[in-house]
Amino acid sequence: MPAPLSPIDKAKYVAARRASEFVESGMKIGLGTGSTAAWLVRCLGERVAGGLRIRAVPTSSRTASLAREVGIEVISLDEAKWLDLTIDGADEVDGNLNLIKGGGGAHLQEKIVATASDRMVVIADAGKQVETLGAFPLPIEVVPFGWQTTQLLVEEALIGLDVLGRTTALRMSGDAPFVTDEGNHILDLQLGRIGNARQLSLVLNQIPGVVENGLFIDICDALVVGHGDGRVLVRDLAEGGVSETRYALEGEDNIFTEIAE
Ligand SMILES: O=C[C@H](O)[C@H](O)[C@H](O)COP(=O)(O)O
């Protein structure tokens, strides 16, 4: 018997399960990266086994492996060119559905894929919702060449901007610098609070050596928030309003079933 899910895993699972219902046969979809997106890939794998026909562009090598493992057809973005829908997790999401992403170091591919989609849907547990972005360190992907110079330029560029802090740390993986799927490094920027996320994103992306930052401004179209008790709230910017779905734990095997719309 599988180990019981923690409340946070239940929240991620129900959010992913609800968002998987947006996927229809014939769609080309973008698959995000991270623990919440991994639930989505598993949910879609089940639907593919039941006859759903989709082609998917993963946003990382990790997601590509999982997608293939569960039987989803994987194609490249160049092959797909444009996608119907991308579903991905987030590290922070504010009231305007602006995001911080990249906690797993995948925000470069994630931003390219989400931008090449008709719609981006974010799936998250309730703890990811914030009033103002910035408590989560902002990931900045930088090329390895001269990364310490890039780090100084980043810290300097923040002087005068509406942020609380401006210290950066090179992300490590054990004793070595973390390396992204594109062969780059990540600087994690401790800001505390971001006053003007759009301005900050533009400033950062103009610095030589910076490849992409983890701010997603005006990219997300809908937010699906899961709760540990099985409730899921969907907020769609186009439709306005919030709809609620509730999933119930069935028996002892941690399988959720939808009980109400
Ligand atoms: O680089 C990683 C991605 O941006 C993830 O979507 C983000 O970090 C959220 O991950 P998780 O669902 O594991 O909290």
TrEMBL record:
Pathway: Carbohydrate degradation; pentose phosphate pathway; D-ribose 5-phosphate from D-ribulose 5-phosphate (non-oxidative stage): step 1/1. The active site is at E110 (proton acceptor). It catalyses: aldehydo-D-ribose 5-phosphate = D-ribulose 5-phosphate. Keywords: Isomerase. Its EC number is 5.3.1.6. Pfam families: Rib_5-P_isom_A. It is an enzyme of class 5 (isomerase). GO terms for biological process: D-ribose metabolic process; pentose-phosphate shunt, non-oxidative branch. Belongs to the ribose 5-phosphate isomerase family. Catalyzes the reversible conversion of ribose-5-phosphate to ribulose 5-phosphate. Homodimer. This is Ribose-5-phosphate isomerase A. It comes from Wenxinia marina DSM 24838.
